[in-house]
Amino acid sequence: MRRTALVTGAGRGIGKAVCEALAGLGHRVIAAGRDERGVQRVAAACGDGALAVELDITDGASVRRCFEQVKAVDILVNNAGVLLDGGTSPASVPLELVERHLQVNTLGAWRMSQAFLPGMLARGWGRIVMVSSGAGAFSNGLFAGAPAYAVSKVALNAVTVLLAAEARDRGVLVNAVNPGRVRTRMYPDAEQTPQDAATDVVWAATLPDDGPTGVFLRSRRKIPW
């Protein structure tokens, strides 16, 4: 069945690759992000009803405008994120920088989910995917070299569990994906390509109705938080 999928941070990197992969599966794509020209290019490449939406997930008014423009989506991929504190330490990282990471990586995804989850629940079907990180996994060891980023991803994982519990047995699956280190502006030297990461994200975004929910996924397998 053809679904409508909204991807945040869609102008480049993993978001762009996710849009392209979902379009390749026949789904209608909404490419959303602050880079207006970038999301327009992505939407144009995805064709067949694809839409570009300028969106700042840290701005409630921007999210409301996005919702009013697109109304209903079946799949929400919360991909937008920042890593601005590399090389700092937990004892010295500026708390203003911590707040910025939480605003984007955690509250932005939560804000988007609050906007679109109620409609999914009302229709009885939906998929929400949080693009998280091993840097925020206790099982992996939190990454002290980017403490604000790590804490924001821990919090994002918590939001995933809470939303999944609310949506359980109501047709909506909510999961987090750890794509690993991916060759983007965050990790320009990483071996894995955005297309590699998109494979796992798209798998989580198109899970069957009996698929897992409220879990952390890596390479299509459940991993510990």
Task: Write up this protein.
The chain is an alpha/beta fold. It has a single domain, classed as Rossmann fold. It contains 6 helices and 8 strands; from the N terminus they run βαβαβαβαβαβαββ. An 8-stranded mixed beta sheet has the order 3-2-1-4-5-6-7-8, sandwiched between helices. It starts with a strand and ends with a strand. The relative contact order is 0.15.
List keywords for this structure.
single chain, 225 residues, alpha/beta, Rossmann fold, eight-stranded mixed β-sheet, 6 helices, 43% helix, 16% strand, SDR_fam, NAD(P)-bd_dom_sf
Shape by Cα distribution: globular
Pairing-aware structural class of the strands and helices?
A: alpha/beta
- Annotated CATH architecture: 3-Layer(aba) Sandwich
The main sheet comes to: 8 strands, mixed
SSE order, as H and E? EHEHEHEHEHEHEE
- Spatial strand arrangement across the major sheet: 3-2-1-4-5-6-7-8
Give the C-alpha Rg: 16 Å
CATH topology: Rossmann fold
- Put simply, the count of helices is 6
Strand portion, in percent?
Answer: 15-25%
Organism: Nonomuraea longispora
GO molecular function: oxidoreductase activity
Protein name: SDR family NAD(P)-dependent oxidoreductase
Family: Belongs to the short-chain dehydrogenases/reductases (SDR) family.
